[in-house]
Amino acid sequence: MTTTTPPRPGERHLARMARGAEGIKPSEIPTLFAVRGRTDVVSLAGGMPNLEGLPQRAIADETAGLVALGGKVVLQYGSAQGLPKLREQICEVMSLEGIAADPDDVVVTVGSQMALDFVTRIFCDPGDLVLTEAPSYIGALGVFASYRADVVQVPVDDRGLVPDALRAALEDAERAGRRPKFLYTVPNFHNPAGVTLAVERRAEVLEICAAHDVLVVEDNPYGMLALDGRTFPALRSMDAENVVYLGSFSKTIAPGLRIGWVTAPAAVREKLVQAAESTTLCPPAFTQAVLSRYLARHDWRAQIDTYRDSYRVRRDAMLAALAEHLPEGSRWTRPEGGFFVWVTVPDGVDTDALMPYADRHKVAYVPGSAFYAEGSGRGRSELRLSFSYPTPERIAEGVRRLGLAITDYQSAH
Amino acid sequence: MTTTTPPRPGERHLARMARGAEGIKPSEIPTLFAVRGRTDVVSLAGGMPNLEGLPQRAIADETAGLVALGGKVVLQYGSAQGLPKLREQICEVMSLEGIAADPDDVVVTVGSQMALDFVTRIFCDPGDLVLTEAPSYIGALGVFASYRADVVQVPVDDRGLVPDALRAALEDAERAGRRPKFLYTVPNFHNPAGVTLAVERRAEVLEICAAHDVLVVEDNPYGMLALDGRTFPALRSMDAENVVYLGSFSKTIAPGLRIGWVTAPAAVREKLVQAAESTTLCPPAFTQAVLSRYLARHDWRAQIDTYRDSYRVRRDAMLAALAEHLPEGSRWTRPEGGFFVWVTVPDGVDTDALMPYADRHKVAYVPGSAFYAEGSGRGRSELRLSFSYPTPERIAEGVRRLGLAITDYQSAH
Hints:
The structure is a homodimer. By secondary structure, chain A is α/β, with parallel strands linked by helices. Chain A has two domains: about 15-55 and about 300-410, Aspartate Aminotransferase, domain 1; about 75-295, Type I PLP-dependent aspartate aminotransferase-like (Major domain) (Aspartate Aminotransferase, domain 2). Chain A has helices at about 10-15, 30-35, 55-75, 85-95, 110-125, 140-145, 165-175, 200-210, 235-240, 265-280, 285-295, 300-325, 355-360, 390-410; strands at about 40-45, 105-110, 130-135, 150-155, 160, 180-185, 215-220, 245-250, 260-265, 330, 340-345, 365, 365, 380-385. In chain A, strands 2-9-8-7-6-3-4-5 form an eight-stranded mixed β-sheet, with helices on both faces. The interface between A and B is large, with 98 and 98 residues.
């Protein structure tokens, strides 16, 4: 006797799915957050910001005032490009990293993820080439895959993207008759690698890309989160013509507002606005107005200092615990900002196969393979740890458990 | 001596734009709202909801309470599919139109525009065929064009989409060896036609589509806004397997929250969630929580009654003014809900060429050509008027000015 599974409702409609949509696949991101409700597991997986320091009362009061005073405006349709006042404030934020932009060159998006989706949609046909770091942000690899772009990943070292490796990748592409549509890079406090592009490399990276006439997409969610309060000159500040800059308030204020932005040279910006009009008509006027009022009336720089302090003790806790608990042969990066430490495990340990061991010890991490293009087979000796969300005590405990998981794995193999 | 215009910043990058992005073009929607700040012009163009009846104080208090109590949750990342509690409430709303859906089948989106973008992205490769009403919603035509889908528009009469015309369009397509990816339809209080699909036609439309194995995309932003408080059975309530339903709170609560949704059979819904993850990670938790709390703690049905009352006096003002001021040979629809009246002007008047006359008389409308696929040459004897936003007095004055503009035009031709 055989049993057959009945088709799911609507299954047959998928038989007529667009070929262009075949790259839209389940993301690994939800699984990163899946353990968030489980108190028995220490999650060092998801990169959620810690909102302990957020002045909830102030945001509540500001929001109430805003709605009571201007509800008929902030609850109405707005402009596709975003609230003009907020775009001015975004220019102020960017000026801290040396960017001189006009509010006209800024497009507000529903998180910077949406900005990356638009940029990719505008430039990439299936089979087009994108360069990015090895490893790279999961969400970016997901977007590139969703448009069926090919990804070539360029090595990083402790000082970020390696210029010679970038040059070699571009020359390889050229020999193959291909010109990448853009280089996607996270120069500051890289997700997942935890490294920062050295200032003296920045001009070189830009020159290499300009020489090959390749656009640079600079994604900078963590730039304001240097643990010592420094800022680095943005690539965009050095080459406004060839850099599309993605920014976000998700890590400096709060992700629940879903407000990011893209700053682009005028011709590209115009296409981005058109994509925004077609996709959402406009970003929510409500969240933009709340954020704008908060930025105007509160000391948001001091607020970011508070966040930095909370991340510094967490980073320190993680580095100390790694030194104490990880077995010999382990290495890791020492991030000076952002949320992430990138760990290389001892020879012979496979971070995909390590997952059930970590599960038994009730600790969660993200295996390195998630940060490489699908099917590359890379990343199996690496893993990502996030120190942004748990308390320092939980971080120490989580790393201790990870050490036990690795030791168990080694004993069993 | 010749002068050359310098290229805009970033212009040369557009030379390498994706072929797939060539359909992303400027929308006509911003121009509809362009006169909104000008008090000398009566705008009957944009379809902004009237938010006079919105209880701002209540929304302000609810939002403040929400942030003060649960800020760390509502300002954090959420799920790509949307807040579970809100998806339950959306099922309650849909039950008023006879839909029995599971919260699992609902995906919250940034306005229903984004839901339509996702559906089109999932199903349409360039050159694929979509059927829709003639005329059709500008924003939908924009999305279809952005994915370079071909559009065939099927006539409507006073009782909505004409079944025989739909059958003929499907047979024509079949003879040409093409099967449409879906029928996009606005059954209730159509934008721009102002007509409603007769209940006795609904099953017939579904049967015709099922016989040709064509998915139906039902867009229903105005369903709750019948001026007499009636509701009509949703197409989705009659065929859950073959209908993807788009809903919105933009017209029943407020557009500034940008909360819409899509209800789809499981297999299609799963792809929609994947598209959402890739595009925005998640819709804003903040606006979802505000809306959910408002729905839970306030009599939103009574609130919609208030909106209906305000739209009824506006619709009546517009119909009375049309009868009084439009020259002989004009015809118009008599909407029983929604925001729009569709006007056919007297023979010999071209509604594109009428624009400067209307401008001189300081009244704004949308020419009919905007509601047909680009290059079709259709709609030039038609125009759309919106009665949703201005006061009844301004509506009467606007229609008076439109009458003068038409008469001027007739004298000049």
